Amino acid sequence: MKNLLRSTLAIAIGLSLAACGSSSNKGNSTVEFGGEFVKGKYLFADVELFHASDTGFTNALAATMTDNQGAYVLPYTGVIEGAYVVRATTGENTTMICDAHPCGDTAYGSPIPTDQLTGLELTTINVPGDNLTVTANGNAVTTIATQTVIAGIEGTGGFNLDTIELAVMTQLQINASAAIGALAGIDLTGVNIFSTAIVDASDSTAMLATSGASSSLSLFNGSLAGLAGTGENIGTKLKTYVGKVKTAAVTVFVSNSNLDYPTLIAEIRDINADIIIEINKILLAINTGVSVEDQLDNSTVPDPIVVTDVIDQIKETKKLNPITGITGVTGAT
Question: Which of 15, 22, 147, 166 is positioned for an S-S bond with 322, CB 3.0–4.6 A?
Answer without folding.
Answer: 15
